[in-house]
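step=encode ok
step=design start
structure_in=
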């Protein structure tokens, strides 16, 4: 489970984990420019906005843009691409984070960072509309007084002239056929999986080899991190997902899509923990994916089947709930069969193949137990 789904054609990753697209393929509002082109002060971006407002009705009032007319991103909103990413029905994404001047992120608890009050995060979602890549929504989070987070999705008009807050979400975004924008309550369901709300901006994902932009190493260089146990000085090499290439791909995928938001120790009612932990990266066998999933019988019953189902059954994806539910989208039996459980309308074939390859390779010779009966 992860940040919410958005229906779109699958994106094509480039060598560094980004998205390959030519100017002819992309339709975005006006002429979006990067932080490298940012102007010193906003022109029309904050015209008529209320300073310090936590829930602006328009995206332009959140502070992302130095110039709304030119769609110029402010210089101190820095881009990042995590090495492990959430499936969002094939949507392409751009991410930005902004800290208050002089502040730092507390990484004393490596698996649950604490962000300073005033931290802002934006995530843009692009979908294919009539064969063109178009900006559909921008999700915004800000940490306000009393450490409370505000989360809002802003939906772009079809002509790209405005982006308005939609607190109740949108079942089908303008110009799309089945692109769903999440409501504030849905946002809370996923973001509650972290003590301090932010999901993909975390140690394991930012230390991954294919992370780009504001990576773990860049955070160290910029002195954005602090801790009381010298955790901020850890080398990126100590935060790598263990195992073979097949194991690393599957574990990283499941960590970000299942464990970070839902299947973890702080989210109630999810049944088990399936999140990588910085202190348990020494071996695949030490991860919760093995200790809590492998050969553990599932309470879920596969529609139309009487076979005993396990969370993960070595060498047998056909009786592994993790793999099976990834391949389902409700309504199947009206009982909430799919994973992630809501706001996703398309199966991720690549992610599902990663998980199947991992399960298929779980032989005793590879260090796994024999399949349970």
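sequence_out=
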């Amino acid at each position: 489970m992860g940040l919410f789904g958005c229906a779109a054609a699958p994106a094509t990753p480039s060598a560094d984990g980004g998205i390959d697209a030519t100017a002819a393929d992309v339709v975005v509002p006006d002429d979006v420019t990067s932080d490298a082109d940012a102007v010193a002060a906003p022109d029309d971006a904050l015209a008529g906005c209320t300073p310090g407002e936590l829930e602006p009705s328009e995206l332009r009032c959140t502070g992302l843009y130095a110039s709304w007319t030119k769609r110029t991103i402010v210089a101190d909103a820095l881009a990042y691409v995590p090495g492990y990413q959430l499936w969002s029905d094939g949507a392409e994404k751009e991410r930005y984070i902004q800290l208050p001047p002089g502040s730092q992120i507390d990484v004393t608890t490596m698996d649950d960072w604490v962000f300073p009050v005033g931290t802002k995060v934006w995530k843009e979602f692009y979908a294919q509309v009539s064969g063109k890549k178009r900006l559909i929504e921008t999700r915004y989070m800000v940490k306000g007084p009393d450490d409370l987070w505000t989360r809002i999705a802003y939906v772009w008009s079809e002509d790209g002239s405005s982006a308005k807050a939609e607190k109740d979400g949108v079942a089908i975004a303008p110009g799309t056929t089945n692109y769903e924008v999440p409501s504030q309550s849905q946002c809370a369901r996923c973001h509650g999986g972290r003590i301090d709300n932010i999901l993909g901006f975390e140690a394991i994902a930012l230390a991954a080899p294919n992370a780009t932009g504001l990576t773990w190493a860049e955070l160290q260089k910029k002195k954005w991190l602090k801790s009381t146990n010298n955790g901020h000085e850890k080398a990126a090499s100590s935060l790598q997902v263990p195992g073979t290439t097949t194991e690393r791909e599957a574990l990283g995928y499941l960590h970000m899509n299942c464990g970070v938001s839902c299947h973890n120790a702080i989210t109630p009612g999810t049944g088990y923990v399936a999140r990588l932990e910085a202190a348990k990266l020494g071996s695949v066998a030490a991860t919760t994916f093995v200790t809590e999933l492998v050969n553990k019988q599932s309470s879920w019953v596969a529609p139309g089947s009487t076979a005993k189902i396990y969370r993960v059954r070595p060498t047998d994806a056909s009786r592994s709930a993790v793999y099976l539910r990834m391949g389902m989208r409700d309504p199947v039996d009206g009982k909430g069969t799919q994973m992630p459980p809501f706001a996703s309308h398309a199966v991720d074939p690549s992610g599902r193949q990663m998980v199947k390859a991992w399960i298929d390779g779980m032989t005793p010779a590879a260090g796994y137990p024999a399949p349970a009966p």
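step=design ok
step=annotate ok -> Helices lie at 184-191, 203-207, 216-221, 245-259, 288-291, 321-326, 349-360.
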